[in-house]
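Let's practice the habit of predicting before peeking. Look at the sequence and jot down your guess about where helices and strands might fall. Then scroll down.
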Amino acid sequence: MKVAVAGCCHGALDKMYETLELLQRRHNVWPDLLLCCGDFQAVRNEADLRCMAVPAKYRHMQTFYRYYSGEKKAPVLTVFIGGNHEASNHLQELPYGGWVAPNIYYLGYAGVVRFRGVRIGGISGIFKSHDYRKGHFECPPYNQQTIRSAYHVRNIEVFKLKQLKHPIDIFMSHDWPRSIYHYGNKKQLLKMKSFFRQEVESNTLGSPAASELLQHLKPTYWFSAHLHVKFAAFMQHEANSKEELPKATKFLALDKCLPHRDFLQQIIDVEHDPNAGDSLEYDAEWIAVLKATNSLVNVTQSSWNMPEKNGLYAKWDYSATEEAIKEVLEELNHDLKIPCNFTLTAACYDPSKPQKNTEPVHTINPQTTEFCAQFGLTDINDRIQQAKEEASGRGEYEEEEEEEMDSTGSAEEPSEYNTDNSGLSSFNPDEIMLDEEGGDEDLSTCSVDPSPDHPPDFSTSFSDIRIMPDSMAVSSDDAMDSNNEELEKSGGSKQVEEKSSTERPLKRIGGDENGNSGIKKIKRRNQAIYAAEDDDKTD
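Done guessing? Here is the structure:
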């Protein structure tokens, strides 16, 4: 079957699906499944926009609400994970996954499903070490810290995924697995994104948690987005035993998806079960793992480690036995079809009746309630609500909330990973300035709708249908074999680029208008996501 993969679509669903239709007209190709690797932005209304971690001037309604309301329906089954620019309150309703609109399925904080016999897994969010060992404690209305920590990956999700024993065909993460750049064309990557050089050379670019999962799961395909550059790699895994067959992963990072460009980044042909139905299905092993790890659910800010074989835990193996998997199948009467039980849980945006002052509320989604009741799992949102009510009764919640609002950020906590990164420490013009709420820049968009008169350019990103460009599958030493002269040239060009970057006006935090006592902060941005003009300049 044909699987289309897209990067960050940023809520522009109309553009994405129109591009698929154009692809069908021009190439007579139609995918059976569409995968999106985060920053999907399932924004239903103005309250959802307030829960999205982007500056206010970038909060645009886009077109998801039309699919949520039923005005439109996705023309192809769409499965997506969360990124770091999402309507977190909406996705939080579905921690175990569920339908955000008819024919559009969210995988949850982490999840595994099947479609036509193909096993698809994913993990939402990005890695930040200071939140990694915490529970999912956030709930709307968010404050300045929790609106960000809500999308940070937690160790319990990684632990659950590491319990899987059966092969994964496709896996998705928003940020890249750390070190994956050593298995592709580093030289070309650094030529396109020279500001990655410091992180690449120090091996701190990407998520260490995703890298751990890549080494454990060894999926056939791994797709990521986040860094807004297309990059392919081929990773050959070492066998754990003589009996294990060699495995390899084809990695592809997707570029950003702009309204005037080709949203479709890749189509791959995936072997499938011709006898399987066309419905999205639960994965029995994943359900068994969820049941086995249910006692580990944490909804507090307390940091804790997952069980491991170090003599401190009575149990550390939570993988599913064949008997446990069989029990799940029996519970479902061997019918693994995911019910089409999408439910509206919030008012839908009405362009004729704007509700700009609507406040987000913490909602328990009936899909999650049904899922938890069916499999005997903890409803995370219900647990959070209970904890909130108990704390409020003791007069603790308000004090805790006030302390968070006064804080400049959570303190660094000990972690099994020694480097906190997922965003980039160096100046990256392709990252959003999260803290900026004002600004005088004119960010008028310059988009061109896919149409017979203005078709997207397929020549650079879709010249043909293929699995993986061979030119990108190179040795890990590819970027290091240049001579000193070349390195000096690249260093020189980097200095020019950095100088150009630092000449941009920097927002001053605190201090007077002359900046005598203020502190300069270089902030990450990607104005190009929302402003095509800025993209053309930065690229």
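How did you do? Residues 2-393 form a domain with the Purple Acid Phosphatase; chain A, domain 2 fold (CATH 3.60.21.10).
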